[in-house]
Amino acid sequence: MMDENNVPKVSVIVPVYNSEKYLPETIDSILNQKFADFELILIDDGSKDSSGVICDSYAAKDSRVRVIHKENGGICSARNAGLKIARGEYLAFCDNDDKYLPNLLEDNYELAKEYNADIVRFKRKRIAYIDGRRIVTTTSAYRFAVLQGEKIAENYLNMSGMSITIWNGLYRRSILVENKIRFPEWMRYGQEDAWFNFCYYENANCIVMNPNVYYYWIQRDCHSTSSKFHKNLLSSCYACMKKEWDVMDKLGTDKYHKDCYFRLIKLYLIRFFAYMNRTACTYNYIKKAQVLRSFCEKIPQKDKILCNDEKDAKLLQAILHNRGMQLCYLLRKMNVVE
In sequence order, what are the residues at sequence separation of 6 or more whose Cβ sits closer than 8 angstroms to the Cβ of residue 134? Predict the structure, then answer.
């Protein structure tokens, strides 16, 4: 057990909301870690089921468990409440229906200390239950790497795909404290993890890439938000694009990848179009074109957007000249779906 008088090596933050069916397995997967010097912070975000009672029962049995009960404010609000009281040298995150593998904390904390890392990234396995089918995928393969200084800029595009989630990382808490990094509570429908990571990357000097899987991201039909749609999701997506653009500017990514800004814009246009193809979105073709045109009109410094691939020449011209209808046509030809 952790000594209450000592600062734990890691704080694990878990926002909890109406997850009584899956929460015990999640908590057990964390408490059963081979690495023991951590605190587990459970934030009951106004649950209406027995989730809060389950949290308290674990706290009564294990001194490493701390519980916050608060009014419902969303996942960003819950995580920020956890950040306020976290004491660990490093921070880790978990969702209330996912699962840690036994060596997650031990292996990644050892890497963090060995290389004095600001963040250690590791792989996750996605287990999705869709229409009764079990689909398993993992993040793209990559090699072990220690990225510092110019190496971060050089490898940014390879690692940026890991930036859309937070539970596949171990973060140095002092960077969050010194730079006042918090989750954006106005983002209520997605993209908050990406925003958090981009703010963090602006201040990270050493990033370790661990190619092993340690986290099970479990998507269940009853817990999935992929069929939902809200225009806040689009504004959040644009804010993340702008933030990531700023990060690449600061790092000087274009010194190594001349087309990095085009690749960034293309990625976010695809994401925009995919969101608007969700079943809950009622936008017609013209409305989608208007949204894409508005997105392009707000892109900063378009002179930086260069394209190396002739196959994307039409897409580049549509971006530069804010051609929403053409973008709709080109993205639809790509068969963009979520």
Answer: 127, 128
**CA separation for the pair 47, 235 (Å, rounded):** 28
Contact at 8 Å (CB) between 133 and 59?
A: no
Task: Please provide the distance, in angstroms rounded to a whole number, between the alpha carbons at the two ends of the chain.
Answer: 43
DSSP structural state of residue 263: H
pTM above 0.85, yes or no: yes
Residues 51 and 199 grouped into a single domain: yes
Residue 4 CB coordination number (10 Å): 9
- 182 with 240, same domain: the answer is no
Give, as one character, the DSSP assignment of residue 142. Answer: -
Residue 201 domain-assigned? yes
Cα–Cα distance measured from residue 127 to residue 207, given in angstroms and rounded to the nearest whole number: 27
Mean pLDDT of 59-88: 97
Encode pLDDT of 185-231 as tens digits.
Answer: 988 877 899 999 999 998 999 999 999 999 999 887 644 445 677 77
Residue entry with tokens 């419902």: 72
* Cβ-contact 160, 204 below 8 angstroms: no
Expressed as residue numbers, the domain containing 299 is: 231-333
Domain co-membership, 261 together with 213: no
Cα–Cα distances in angstroms (integers) from residue 212 to residues 27, 179, 203, in the given order: 22, 29, 25
Instruction: Find out whether 94 and 23 touch, Cβ atoms under 8 Å.
Output: no
Q: Of 275 and 40, which is predicted with more confidence?
A: 40
Asked if residues 213 and 122 have their Cβ atoms less than 8 Å apart, the reply is yes
Q: Are residues 125 and 264 in the same domain?
A: no
